[in-house]
Amino acid sequence: MSARHTKITHDDCPVREVLSRVGDKWSILVVAVLRDGSMRFNDLRRSIDGISQRMLTLTLRGLERDGLVTRTVTPTTPPRVDYALSRLGRTLLDPIMALADWAETNRIAIQTSRQKFEEDGRRGAQSPPPPRKSLRGSRGA
Fold it and tell me: Of residues 48 and 2, which shows the higher confidence score?
């Protein structure tokens, strides 16, 4: 049986497991923002447009749990908490930045394609539906 026809279950697929963490938009953005060095929570939040405090907290916990981000607490008043990419997290930079470069290079082509698709969809919605065949005629009745 060829690899193309092999059924891969969720439990057997390491790609699914890893992409569930690094494939969501918030994780990608956090990794990209941390590429230049460690940051405090509020600095991260200000750097990522649209992320809520709760979503940033959940994303950072997940990235830390998976060993991609380190969390360093400095015992000051108030405590200072810094987040940085771990050695493993830094290995994500090349693929993430390649994806970001690809997205920037192809952004206009994608927007053009979306616009054409939407225009074609509107034209299709305005055309009358095809005539329906009688079910009785197909049974020979």
Answer: 48
As a whole number of angstroms, the distance between CA 80 and CA 14 comes to: 35
Convert 33-56 to b/e letters by CB count within 10 Å (16 or more is b): bbeeebbebeebbeebeebeeeeb
Q: How far apart are CA 30 and CA 72, in angstroms?
A: 16
| This prediction's pTM | 0.69
Phi and psi angles of residue 83, each rounded to the nearest 5 degrees, phi first:
-115, 140
Give percent helix, percent strand, percent coil of the chain, each to the nearest 5.
Answer: 65, 10, 25
Cα 73 to chain centroid, rounded: 28
Beta bridge partners of 40: 82
Q: Could you tell me where the beta strands, DSSP code E, fall in 32-76?
A: 39-40, 69-74
